Amino acid sequence: MVIKERYFDHLYSGELLAVLEVSSTPACLLDVHHQTVTLNRTLSTELMISETKLHLSNWLSLFQIHDRGEIYRVIHQSSEWNETEIGVSIQIADQLKAFSCKMLHLSNGNIAVIFSPPTNKTNKSSQKSIQDPKRNPLPSCTVLNLTEAFTTQASSTRTSQVKDRLVQAADYFPYGLAMLNSNWEVIYANPKMEQMAGLKLSEYYRKKLWDLFSVNDYNSFFQHYLRAMETQEPVEFQGEACKTGIIMEVTAVPSEQGITIIAKDVSRYNLQLESMKKTEERFNLLSSNIKEACWICSPDLGELHYLSDAFTHIYGVDKHVIINDPPRLFNLIDEEYLDIVKEAGIIMTQKEHQVEYTITTPAGEKKWIRMRGFPAEDEGRKYVVGIDEEITQIKEMSLLEEKSRQLSIITQMAAGVAHEIKNPLTAIKGFLQIGAANPDLRDSYHDIILDEVNRIESIVQDFMMLSKPKSSVQLEYVNLEAIISYVSRLLDPDSSSKEVMIYHSCDSNLKGFYSEPKRLKQILINLVANAMESLGKDGEVQIETVVQDDELIISVIDNGHGLSEQELSKLGEPFYTTKEKGTGLGIMVTKKMIDDLDGQIRYQSSKGEGTCVTVRLPYKT
Which helix or strand (DSSP H or E) is residue 532 part of? Predict the structure, then answer.
């Protein structure tokens, strides 16, 4: 490393060695009067010598014989501040090594010798006049000169005003600011720099930098300052103030007159950055070890900011492929769900939403996916955040459970049907046997046998109705009030014999709508018939219809004996009934017909207070 002479012209001999030591430059100091040579640690290491102080004759013996005369001649030059550069060779171990040796005459008979790799300028002497160290080296127009001249009067009112404003601005500068002159003396530091360095102005003014800060503790600082001076280019680095523990981001700006140091306290920023890194590491650890694929995308769903590793396992495609080209994800989604997924994505930009769909991986594997997403905001920027979860096993288990439930119901219903049919068959068989033994009595049992056959037929029809899949619905334009009137007239004989009154009221907004009249009639007949069977004398059945939010609500209300909570919970189970001769299949048949019309049924009842059955159907006009 070549140290420009203008930066050490004003240094004392010992200080020069310290500066050269910081820059890792091999050097030594010759005391001509005392015939001694002091080596810095870098040169001792380079020459493989354990001693750092030698007699001049011993030092000269290190060089080749033909170099000693030239060195001796340069040593005895009488002119101060002369610089001479010569080429020399030194035997180090078993190797002869060449150096370019720069010799600079200092004051008091001292000579600084700086070693560096050989150059083509060797054996050529150069005479250089060094400026007087007592003279102020700063031009009168520089900021350094203004801050240096604390005790100097301004040459003009304008210069004084500029100086005062610059010093005031520097004092309130939010970053640390310090200035060194060419003698490495601190000539200014603002309060922020005092706070960061832990020093006061009276402690550092006009003191050299290494008198204030230990070279060992601040080695990296000195290295960067020297580099800035050597290259005459700004240097940026980070370092820690040992006294205060503050992490500083430093910019060293060199000039011919010295160096300006700007320092920013980044301790809190570094802590926050470290915390963010740890948080990111934890998040990556979490997202990398969960089965769900986490993702973050832009509000327009066109750019993916993050995609966890689980995505590759779920979709069978490298996540980086989708990050670079997000629309390629749609190629994996089965066509029947594609529009549903796109619509769900738009909803996720506004509120939390989820969607289930199937994909076909590049390997041809079918999978069920559940996507959940919601809008999020961070520092004013909007995102959509979500999780994709493979639910293939859940779907398969659900399907198995549904099949198992259906099988259980079929088994239970088959047993119930067999039981229900067995009773009338036993009666028919008995009466036929009696008729065969007594022909005269045969006609008297004819009606009983026919009733039992009808009962068997009814059970078989209901069972067949339940076992059929959902058949296509033939929608027609119907008048609900006309259908209710028809049901009332149909059940009028039974209601009259039981002294039951049937009332009905229709919403004034109710108009004709599209439904299937056959199923609608049968639903009303079943519900009203069940209500009538729960009534005693002076019983009433009320049929009410209301249109609300594109739904037709039909309520059948009775004032019968009602049902307990336990009875309500079992309602709809195969062959569960509260009637003496009921099978329980009627309620199941009614529910199936309502399901066929995309409707819902709900029961409300209390013991002794009657029952209300509510049917909700789509109201399509």
Answer: helix 517-533
Encode 258-308 in three state secondary structure: EEEEEEEECHHHHHHHHHHHHHHHHHHHHHHCCCCEEEEECCCCCCEEEEC
- Give the Cα-Cα-Cα angle 251, 257, 263 (nearest 5 degrees): 20
DSSP state of 564: -
The DSSP code for 63 is B
Q: Which two tokens stand for residue 119?
A: 């150059």
- List, for residues 560-582, the tens digit of each pLDDT value: 888 877 777 767 665 555 555 55
Residue 217: count of CB within 10 angstroms of its CB = 12
Q: Which of 513, 517, 491 is nearest to 504 (CA)?
A: 491
Supply the pLDDT for residue 310.
87
Give the DSSP per-residue string, 135-186: S--S-TTSHHHHHH-TTSPPSSHHHHHHHHHHHHHHHT-SSEEEEEETTSBE
Work out the burial of residue 468: count CB atoms within 10 Å of its CB; fewer than 13 is exposed, 13-18 middle, 19 or more buried: exposed
Give how far Cα 475 sits from Cα of 31, 252, 486, 517, 566, Å.
Answer: 118, 86, 19, 8, 37
Residue (of 600, 594, 586, 486) closest to 543 by Cα position: 486
**Residue among 468, 456, 465, 560 nearest 522 (CA):** 465
Query: Position 234: which residue type?
Result: P
- Give the span between the Cα atoms of 117 and 489, in whole angstroms: 121
Q: Which residues of the chain have pLDDT under 50?
A: 1-10, 122-155
C-alpha closest to that of 187 among 243, 148, 214, 235: 148
Q: Which long-range contacts (CB under 8 A, 24 or more apart) does 98-102 make?
A: 101/71
Distance set, CA 599 to CA 204, 405, 552 (Å) = 90, 22, 9
- Please report how many Cα atoms fall inside a 13 Å half-sphere around the Cα of residue 42, on the Cβ side: 18
pLDDT of residue 2: 39
Short-list 46, 56, 256, CA closest to 145: 256
Per the CB < 8 A criterion, the answer to whether 267 and 247 are in contact is: yes
CA atoms within 13 A on the CB side of 3: 29
Long-range contacts of 489-496 (CB under 8 A, 24+ apart): 490/525, 491/525, 491/528, 491/529, 491/532, 494/529, 494/532, 495/532, 495/541
Neighbour-count burial for 479-498, b at 16+ CB within 10 Å, e otherwise: ebeebbeebbeebeeebeee
Q: Which amino acid is at 454?
A: N
Model pLDDT for residues 53-66, shown as the tens digit of each residue: 999 888 998 998 88
Q: Residues 6 or more apart from 257 whose CB is under 8 A from it?
A: 137, 138, 139, 142, 144, 145, 181, 182
Q: 605: how many CB neighbours lie within 10 A of its CB?
A: 21
Query: What sign results for the dihedral spanned by CA atoms 388, 394, 396, 401?
Result: negative
Return the bridge partners of 185, or none: 208
247-255 and 235-240 as β-strands: parallel, antiparallel, unpaired?
Answer: antiparallel
As a whole number of angstroms, the distance between CA 609 and CA 61 comes to: 125
CA separation for the pair 203, 201 (Å, rounded): 5
